[in-house]
Amino acid sequence: MNKIILAGLMSALMPLGAMAEGDVDAGEKVFKKCKACHAVGPNAKNRVGPVLNGIVGREVAIIEGYKYSKAMKASELTWDVETLTIYLANPRKFVKGTKMAFAGLKKDDDLENVIAYLAQFDLEGNITE
C-alpha cells in the first residue's frame, strides 16, 4: 500500500486530541540534528528547510517564503504525529522527490522525543502548555 495513503488512513483513525508522547528535553537535544536546516521559536526564519513552528497538525507546504519541492506540494499530507514519525524515519522514501537531504532518525525514542519537542510550539513559535 502506498505510504502516503497509509499515513492518511492512520491519521484519520487517530483521535483528534492525540498528542505527541515523548520527552521534550530529550527532543530538544535530538533537534540539534535539525538546526542546520530548520528553526523553531518566536524569531524563527526559513533556512535550507522551512520554519517548523506549529508543525504538528499543520498541512504540508504552507509556510510563506519557503520554496517547497513539487513532491511535497503534491503530497497533500497533514503533519500529525503518525505522519511525522514515518517521514522523519526516512524522508526520501516517504515523500519521493523531497528536498530534505536528512537520512532520518533511526531510534523510536528520538522520533517520539523530537516530535514532542516540536509539538510544544504554536504557529508563532510560542511554547504552549
Describe this structure in words.
The protein has one domain: Cytochrome Bc1 Complex, Chain D, domain 2, CATH 1.10.760. Strands 1-2 form a two-stranded antiparallel sheet. It is globular. Helices cover 39% and strands 3% of the residues. With 129 residues, it is mainly α. Helix 1 (3-13) packs antiparallel against helix 4 (81-89) and helix 2 (24-31) crosses helix 6 (108-119).
How are the elements arranged and paired?
Layout: H1 3-13, H2 24-31, E1 58-59, H3 70-75, E2 78-79, H4 81-89, H5 91-94, H6 108-119
Antiparallel strand pairs: 1-2
Short description:
The protein has 129 residues and is mainly α. Helix content is 39%, strand content 3%.
* Structural class by SSE content: mainly alpha
CATH class type: Mainly Alpha
Strand order of the largest sheet: 1-2
Number of helices: 6
Roughly what percent helix? 25-40%
Number of domains: 1
Q: What distance separates the N and C termini? A: 37 Å
Q: What is the CATH superfamily classification?
A: Cytochrome c-like domain
User: What percentage of amino acids are in beta strands?
Assistant: under 5%
Describe this protein with a few key phrases.
single chain, mainly alpha, Cytochrome Bc1 Complex, Chain D, domain 2, 6 helices, 2 strands
